[in-house]
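Please predict the structure of the following assembly.
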Amino acid sequence: MGEAEVDTGRRRGRSKGDLREEAILAAAERQLASVGYESITVATLMEEAGGTRGGFYFYFRTKADAVAALVERTVSALHVSLESLSVDQPGAEPVDLIRELLVRTQAIWAEHGPVMSAAVELAPTVPAIGDRWAAARDAVTQTATRIAIQAGLPDSSASDGAAAVTALLVRMGEGAFYEATKRAAPPLSEVTATCGLIWQRCLGA
Amino acid sequence: MGEAEVDTGRRRGRSKGDLREEAILAAAERQLASVGYESITVATLMEEAGGTRGGFYFYFRTKADAVAALVERTVSALHVSLESLSVDQPGAEPVDLIRELLVRTQAIWAEHGPVMSAAVELAPTVPAIGDRWAAARDAVTQTATRIAIQAGLPDSSASDGAAAVTALLVRMGEGAFYEATKRAAPPLSEVTATCGLIWQRCLGA
DNA sequence: AGTTATTCTTGACGGCGCGTCGATTTCTGT
DNA sequence: ACAGAAATCGACGCGCCGTCAAGAATAACT
């Protein structure tokens, strides 16, 4: 069919396989939202993505791998968003930076709730996912730690050092957004507010 | 055999089934520690508990149910320990109460790390476990909220109310003990210290 | 003790989802 | 048009699950 081969900006249309791979990821995201990870089956995935069960393994080694790719894609969006935080600007108020960080995190959760939730749930059990999630968390923690140090928290590795405190607060945010997303309450904006408040108290030397 | 039937304090020795049930739970706890939940199989469980696969289902409906029973037993130990916290005593300093709460929680994690870890991991995915864990968390949150109110946090359901703040901090502690247990570092006592510090900052009006 | 009722154990069965593989079809460049 | 690569298919065997009817062990009763 399609002999026209419309000339989009990009030369060389994506190969058939690229399309299919994306269809699989899309199906995965939809099914994560509708039935949840456990109930997803390679069969249902391929049914929705077009094709048969066996074909799946041309693209991914495992169901977990496919979801891991989805997680990767999503957390990298967060990563990009946080990169543009002007952490080291001179006049930046630490608390405001954290608030901005929270707001941008909230945005990703709002956009990709099911994927983020699944990541939180599966990170402990599924290595492929746990790895990507850990990397993402580390990145956030590092950024937050820099801010915390700016705010005056001790730059030590002791139990009252910026690193230790930040690690816990980041984890808190993770859990908070997760819970709010799962139960559809309270609204994410309230979670952001509560987190912001707690950070504020912890940064105030 | 054994016609002697030693007279223990308790009349009427436990029925054979009770013994077996306990053997299953014991096997479950050991295997949680050694191979982890996913790798536990009803077969391996019964092999260690004595008996054959089919017999398992006389005691539990499912592998998840067995582990849920184990979780139940463990969190109820925590519950008992926290009940004796003199929350409403007149001269009690709120921060000290929280610190004591943290110390007792730490003790349970130290004693039953594998079970607590498994509970955290499985609560989101396995309803039978999620229910018990949620109940336990609610109990802790309620206690902590009472303390937070004593410390002066607003008794409202707004995003800066004691309930909202406490919910997040409790979750933080959960995640912190989990991580420290899993990675065997930092020592639980340090986690307790860091948590205590954060609570302190949040309770200082 | 002997008989009955209950508790407990067993092994076999069918089902589901997984991951592999070789055979086959569809694409792509030349 | 043709060769090689990319993509698809369907069948196979595996492991673990939960059910079940039949049988053995145990407790209760007289």
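The interface with chain B takes residues 37-38, 120-121, 124-125, 159-160, 164-165, 167-169, 171-172, 174-176, 179, 182, 186, 190-191, 193-195, 197-198, 201-202, 204 of chain A (CB under 8 Å). Residues 127-150 of chain A form the longest helix (24 residues).
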